[in-house]
């Protein structure tokens, strides 16, 4: 009995470490929807790096997870197409023919432009909305290590 209590207490002491790791360093997330097809399928599980998300660490082509500017409760996954001070020509019904991305903002688009709500709808997003950068697919197993580059 004494050994069982000791093992339980040691196990419980690791919960704060696990909690901190998954909430502030790397966390798995489930991709919902088809806006990033063919890179991600609906219900793929990906690893998202959450630490050190400064603007200097984000580049064009990176896939990020961020809070929706229209509904902060919702997380979106899109690819960075433009960085601050760049000029972007929107693809869809955006009210301007070209957009200069403001300081500390990003232009993001889904890989599947026909099923994506992205910067072409809501404009550049603040980098403060970025939750993390997608590192890789971890589920299903046959998709581990899939190439995240969009061609």
TrEMBL record:
<dbReference type="InterPro" id="IPR019533">
    <property type="entry name" value="Peptidase_S26"/>
</dbReference>
<comment type="similarity">
    <text>Belongs to the peptidase S26 family. IMP2 subfamily.</text>
</comment>
<keyword id="KW-0472">Membrane</keyword>
<keyword id="KW-0645">Protease</keyword>
<dbReference type="GO" id="GO:0006465">
    <property type="term" value="P:signal peptide processing"/>
</dbReference>
<keyword id="KW-0378">Hydrolase</keyword>
<feature type="signal peptide">
    <location>
        <begin position="1"/>
        <end position="20"/>
    </location>
</feature>
<keyword id="KW-0732">Signal</keyword>
<feature type="domain" description="Peptidase S26">
    <location>
        <begin position="9"/>
        <end position="84"/>
    </location>
</feature>
<dbReference type="Pfam" id="PF10502">
    <property type="entry name" value="Peptidase_S26"/>
</dbReference>
<dbReference type="InterPro" id="IPR036286">
    <property type="entry name" value="LexA/Signal_pep-like_sf"/>
</dbReference>
<dbReference type="GO" id="GO:0006627">
    <property type="term" value="P:protein processing involved in protein targeting to mitochondrion"/>
</dbReference>
<keyword id="KW-0999">Mitochondrion inner membrane</keyword>
<feature type="active site">
    <location>
        <position position="35"/>
    </location>
</feature>
<keyword id="KW-0812">Transmembrane</keyword>
<dbReference type="InterPro" id="IPR037730">
    <property type="entry name" value="IMP2"/>
</dbReference>
<dbReference type="InterPro" id="IPR000223">
    <property type="entry name" value="Pept_S26A_signal_pept_1"/>
</dbReference>
<dbReference type="GO" id="GO:0042720">
    <property type="term" value="C:mitochondrial inner membrane peptidase complex"/>
</dbReference>
<feature type="active site">
    <location>
        <position position="78"/>
    </location>
</feature>
<keyword id="KW-1133">Transmembrane helix</keyword>
<dbReference type="GO" id="GO:0004252">
    <property type="term" value="F:serine-type endopeptidase activity"/>
</dbReference>
<keyword id="KW-0496">Mitochondrion</keyword>
<protein>
    <recommendedName>
        <fullName>Mitochondrial inner membrane protease subunit</fullName>
        <ecNumber>3.4.21.-</ecNumber>
    </recommendedName>
</protein>
<feature type="domain" description="Peptidase S26">
    <location>
        <begin position="97"/>
        <end position="139"/>
    </location>
</feature>
<dbReference type="InterPro" id="IPR019756">
    <property type="entry name" value="Pept_S26A_signal_pept_1_Ser-AS"/>
</dbReference>
